[in-house]
Design a protein that fits this description.
Layout lengths: L4 E3 L2 E4 L4 E6 L2 H4 L2 E9 L6 E6 L5 E3 L7 E6 L4 E6 L8 E9 L2 E4 L3 E6 L1
Length: 116
């Protein structure tokens, strides 16, 4: 059983910042590659926001490049998504995502709402 515990969502004004966290167990974290964040806005398909490999290579959606930063803390078994310069279009449910042992797993989702 892979458990992904997310935190950090909330309501913020446009231009503000939030940091999302996704924690899992040490045994799972060591086998994850890659991991990242998806988001899904109402009426929209789920889209990949950012990902990071075990080696630290990162990938971002064009819409968040230069504003969002994904990172991982191996000591804390946690991946982070630092979101700066938030826009109303960033409003969505954000899901932590990992691939481990050949399977995809998702967190429960955390709501991010950006007011104009």
């Amino acid at each position: 059983q892979v458990q992904l515990v997310e935190s950090g969502g909330g309501l913020v004004q446009a231009g503000g910042s939030l940091r999302l966290s996704c924690a899992t167990s040490r045994s799972i974290f060591s086998s994850i590659n890659p991991m990242g964040w998806y988001r899904q806005a109402p009426g929209q398909q789920r889209e990949l926001v950012a990902s990071i490999t075990r080696g630290g290579s990162t990938n971002y959606a064009d819409s968040v490049k230069g504003r969002f930063t994904i990172s991982r803390d191996n000591a804390k078994n946690t991946v982070y998504l630092q979101m700066n310069g938030l826009k109303p279009d960033d409003t969505a449910v954000y899901y932590c995502w990992v691939i481990t042992l050949g399977h995809n797993y998702w967190g429960q989702g955390t709501q991010v709402t950006v007011s104009s």
